[in-house]
Design brief:
20% strand; 3-stranded mixed beta sheet; elongated; alpha+beta
Length: 147
């Protein structure tokens, strides 16, 4: 693997660890030219379903977009990065377990809302208010009564 610091093509694996749940392998590498160390992660390459948007257009599933929207809803809330990553992993696992080739963006949003509801009620309301784009106060009030 190419060194990200100097670009040298020869690096040596110094340490290998499998994650607790066995989903990825973490490798510490050292460059033979500049002796700097860096970390790589090895994950299986899987095919997530294509997301079908409201307007009918299609886009590849991008977990970084889902994570970013969750992080925005959880901004300044007492939720750890590990909890967010675990919630995102549950969403990804559910998408893979469904073995569908496509998923509606509405269904993906519902999965995110379910995870946020379990993590933090305020984040859930933040996400739902944007995601569902409420037309009036009564819809918002109904959401608050549901939780």
């Amino acid at each position: 693997m190419k060194c990200p610091f100097c670009g040298h093509l020869e690096t040596q694996v110094v340490e290998t660890r499998v994650s607790e749940d066995g989903d990825f392998v973490r490798r510490r590498r050292q460059c033979s030219a500049c002796d700097k160390r860096f970390t790589t992660y090895e994950r299986p390459d899987v095919n997530f379903p294509v997301v079908v948007k409201k307007d009918g257009s299609r886009a590849d599933f991008d977990s970084s977009k889902v994570r970013a929207s969750m992080m925005l809803a959880l901004r300044k809330r007492p939720v750890s990065i590990e909890q967010i990553d675990t919630a995102l992993l549950r969403i990804e696992q559910e998408l893979l377990a469904g073995a569908r080739r496509e998923i509606a963006s509405k269904k993906l949003g519902e999965l995110v809302m379910r995870e946020l509801k379990g993590l933090d009620k305020v984040a859930y309301v933040r996400f739902a208010s944007v995601y569902r784009s409420f037309e009036d106060v009564d819809e918002f009030r109904q959401l608050l009564q549901d939780i």
